[in-house]
Amino acid sequence: MIIFQNISKIYKNNGHESVALDEVAFTINPKEFISLVGKSGAGKSTVIKLLIGEEKPTKGRIIFGSYDVNKIKRKEMPFFRRHIGIIFQDFRLLSAKTAYENVAFALEVAGRPQSDINEFVSQALELVGLKDKMNNFPKELSGGEKQRVAIARAMINHPDVIIADEPTGNLDPLNALEIIKLLLKINELGTTVILATHNKEIVNYLDKRVISLDNGKILRDEEKGKYMLA
Amino acid sequence: MFINLSRIIKYGILGFLRNGWLSMATISVMFLALLVLEGLIVFNIFTNTALDVLQDKIDISVYFKIKTPEDEILKIKKSLETLAEVKKIDYLSRDKALELFKEKHAQNPVVSQSLEELEDNPLLASLNIKAHNPGQYEIIASYLDESSSKESFEKVTYAQNALVIERLNRIINTTKKGGLIFMIFLALIAVLVTFNTIRLAIYSNREEIGIMRLVGASNWFTRGPYMVEGVIYGFVSAILSLIIILPAIYFISPYFKIFIPELDIWNYFISNGFVFMGYQFLFGIVLGVVSSGIAVRKHLRV
């Protein structure tokens, strides 16, 4: 269960204030698949940054399961983040590690034994269809393949939630569809998925809950929503 | 705990090998820094030995009138020995002085002949006094000057040499001080250059550090491998610089010996080899670890 309680985020820059989020409130239930849509600058990325504790809200409270996100100490942050799998538009793989090591890394930081790692990493890479490229470095993989490695890394810890921030932004339509299908599969296996996107086809294809943001405010929040910004 | 440590070490070694160019650049800078440090150590040994040798050549001699009985000379010697400034006193009796003189001029027939023609021993008994450091000769000289047995002194060499001793003393002190400042200055430069090189190397990894944090790596799990890399940098550059410096010292050593016969720098390094290597590794490794640790810290705030 994720709850945003009247969240405002105001960035101050040289005495100039810009409102990124204005009194945003919503609840996400376990095992839900929700799409967060809106133009660039609508506040999608801010919602995600606040949710993973990368930034703190100016006002309001964020509840994530048993955590009060704004009150997490720096030392506890790594443990909190192990409940979340994150996927980015620019993949953010570790360039000096192979596909296998990138996925294994998420388990290693959690201190899991080597036997678990050997078993789970192969499984995860098989699920995303990259078993034959597991010893390649990121620079040797295509965009779609990199994103699939990122998905394998995000789900390997069996997180409660997977957050995908424009995961298809750098991909062609075919690869984009592959990635979305993978996310749906992960959701069916019982993980909450939060997808931030401005890709109309994808949102309409999904036919799931949609939260539309505009200028830092929630425009619409519908079960089985469509991509509409007017 | 153990599994984390072994993973940190594994990733440190992997990172070192996979970032080949970056590792090479960092090691070459550290290697140069260590060479500078070693050069400074050699320079320091050289100047200090040279100055010690020079210092050892300074002394005061008191010559006694021919009629002074040996008892009295020994009494004066004993009273001088109570002075804290005095390091060593050598008594040279008239007979002994003659013997040394004859020995020294054995090859010279003119001198030995003229000695034989003299009925009495013309040489004076003397006390040769050495102080702990050159600044103390003035104190000893003034003690002698106020001594109750002053009448039995034929001459005290300090009066003649005072100017030279004082000047030498000043040169020795300035050289030692100047050498120390020079050494600290160069060592500081070496440390700063190394530190900045490692910082730059880690700056190029700042995105990776951010990603590790987002995936849920703790501070130590993120920082550890970089510090292991720092250890490897220090270790490899220490070995490289030893490979260069040891043969260099071996070849230079005979030339130093021409300047100062008392100085055998090769032997010095051989007998202090382990201490020297220890410093070398300690310097390299501590510098590597501390620089990496500080540099990563900056990028951990995600």
Write the layout of secondary structure elements.
The complex is a heterodimer of chains A (230) and B (302).
Chain A: E1 2-13, E2 16-28, E3 33-37, H1 44-51, E4 59-64, E5 67-68, H2 77-81, E6 84-88, H3 99-108, H4 114-127, H5 143-155, E7 161-165, H6 173-188, E8 192-197, H7 200-206, E9 209-214, E10 217-222
Parallel strand pairs in A: 3-8, 3-9, 6-7, 7-8
Antiparallel strand pairs in A: 1-2, 1-4, 4-5, 9-10
Helix pairs in contact in A: 3-4, 3-5, 4-5, 5-6
Chain B: H1 2-18, H2 20-56, E1 60-64, H3 70-81, E2 86-92, H4 94-104, H5 109-117, E3 126-131, H6 137-145, E4 153-156, H7 158-203, H8 206-215, H9 219-259, H10 265-271, H11 273-297
Helix pairs in contact in B: 1-9, 2-7, 2-9, 7-11, 9-11
- Assembly level: heterodimer
Number of strands of chain A: 10
**Share of residues in strands of chain B:** 5-15%
Q: What is the ordering of alpha helices and beta strands of chain B?
A: HHEHEHHEHEHHHHH
What would you say this structure looks like, in words?
The complex is a heterodimer of chains A (230) and B (302). Chain A has 230 residues and is an alpha/beta fold. Chain A has one domain: 3-Layer(aba) Sandwich (Rossmann fold). Chain A contains 7 helices and 10 strands. In chain A, the strands form 2 sheets. Chain A has a 6-stranded mixed β-sheet with strand order 6-7-8-3-9-10, with helices on both faces. In chain A, strand 1 and strand 2 form a beta hairpin. The longest helix of chain A is centred in the C-terminal third of the chain and has 16 residues. Chain A starts with a strand and ends in an 8-residue tail after the last strand. In chain A, 45% of the residues are buried. The model of chain A has no long low-confidence stretch (mean pLDDT 91). Chain B has 302 residues and is an alpha+beta fold. Chain B folds into 2 domains: 181 residues, no CATH class; 104 residues, Alpha-Beta Plaits (2-Layer Sandwich). Helices cover 74% and strands 7% of the residues of chain B. Chain B is built from 11 helices and 4 strands. In chain B, helix 2 packs antiparallel against helix 7. The longest helix of chain B has 46 residues. Chain B starts with a helix and ends in a 5-residue tail after the last helix. Chains A and B meet through helix 2 and helix 3 of A and helix 1 and helix 8 of B.
